[in-house]
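Intended use. Records like the one below are meant for learning the mapping from a protein sequence to its folded structure. Do not use them to infer anything beyond what is encoded.
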Amino acid sequence: MQFEPFSIETGGRLVEYRRPVVMGILNITADSFYDGGRYREPAAMLAHARQLLADGADIIDLGASSSRPGATLLPPDEEARRLAEAVALLRAELPEAVISVDTCFATPARAAIEAGADIVNDIGGGDLDPEMFAAVAEMQVPYVLMHGATQHFARQTAAADRSADEMVDEVVRYLSAKVDTLRRMGVKDIWLDPGFGFGKTVVENLRLLDSLDQVATLFAEPLLAALSRKRMVYQPLGLDAEHALEGTIALDAIALDRGARLVRVHDPRPARQTIELMMLTSRQTTH
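Structure written out for the chain above:
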């Protein structure tokens, strides 16, 4: 596994990552595909955040609106209220934690950053809210740019599964154009998410994962792999999300081997263990 260290500036501090990053998922939604409804109450939310950090998460990724297939996104004002309240609680109790907010609208992003969040994780890639790029540029916060949301929410499916080359070409073209726009607007820290599970069939997702090294080598920006317990993990095995931990570990390892520098997971402990073993067995020694 090759790993290039990177850093971000957030909240007046420089955060350096010298090994692959684990982003722990904290959903405060009622209807997320795996853990919806478990962490909506403040006490449960805070307890799970503490557990994520104890299990090795470097970042807490907080989401208040489900993006699972068939879900209806929350109105931005309501999402903003929920995110701001949750961020304020986490920041008060966990002052050193790096907090990302999973939202595709500028209003919740602004409210969350003002409440103390560090990173905006936008599954919409700026397409679901034309104000998002301007908000991120104005706030000067790290930004996660994802591919595939437009097709996902439009429920568009291809007549036939696209080839790996077609998938790589589409993802690279999309991300390249968006990165260029963000750079011209002054956004400094950008992470790229190829959008596994969004606007892609299971076969296309697996083909893209297998070719992820081709995407990684074309960008200086760190690549994030969000594979945890998704359909591409469990459907080929005839399982469900509840029984997809082992499959997630396997696909995370493939993603890391092919150049991902961050993984977004429900289960940080096995992800951290996977990273530690991969670093130990790597031919490259990173200091």
